[in-house]
Amino acid sequence: MTQKIPASHAIKELTLLLAYLTHFSENEPFETARSYRSWKGYDFDVLNSLDELGWIDQGSFRSKSLYLTDEGLQKAQDLLEKYGIEDCPFGRRFFSKPFSRTEVSGKAVSTNR
Known about the structure:
The protein is mainly α. It is built from 4 helices and 3 strands, in the order αβαββαα. The protein has one domain: Arc Repressor Mutant, subunit A. α1 crosses α2 and α1 packs across α3. The radius of gyration is 16 Å and the shape is globular. Pfam families: DUF6429 (PF20008). InterPro entries: DUF6429.
């Protein structure tokens, strides 16, 4: 039996991981970018905690995006390994089309309603 981690710890890890997997770059070719951003669509207390840990930099509290720090990028890559998730080298650009409900759930979904 694997040892469970506290939910608060998992929330921090998974929030960082989602921010990493959906990151984007501005004004730089993505493949050579040195700064990565993600939208602040997560619980603010969790974001504040990640900022205190040095994994992200929220910049101005008015901004709608955050920066992933070098330490945060490394931690996120370690979490990919921990959770067995394949890295998404091109961030959000990788998802060029919306997922169908079938792709998300793995089950055929009737569209006749």
